[in-house]
Amino acid sequence: MADENEILGKLRDAIVELDIPGVQEASQEAISTGISAYRAVVEGMAKGMEIVGQKYEEGEYYLAELIMAGETMREGMVVLEPHFTSGEVSRAGKAVIGTVKG
User: Fold this and answer.
1) Nearest CA among 98, 41, 33, 38 for reference residue 74
2) Residues 62-92: tens digit of each pLDDT
3) CB atoms closer than 10 angstroms to residue 26
4) Are 12 and 45 in contact (CB under 8 A)?
5) Beta-carbon-side half-sphere exposure of residue 47 (alpha carbons within 13 Å)
6) Euclidean distance between CA atoms 99 and 49, whole angstroms
7) Which pTM value belongs to this model?
8) Dihedral sign, CA of 9, 4, 25, 66?
């Protein structure tokens, strides 16, 4: 069985390589090995999106690859979404929005 860092690396690489079947497989592998869905997104797929963004800025990737990376991540999220747990959300405070009259 692969270790957690290897699985998170697979998620990252699948996003960078625009590999939809690869991201689906790695997402399922992450869940089956006990990696939380949140961690799979933050430490795996989001890191891949950062690399895609860097490649876009450097001119190595174009708009089409940027869109495809988003689609690849979305397909990974389809696998992970049922495994997100809703925890207690603490209230930070109140926000008041308004404008000055006149």
Assistant:
1) 41
2) 999 999 999 999 999 999 988 887 655 566 7
3) 28
4) yes
5) 15
6) 38
7) 0.78
8) negative
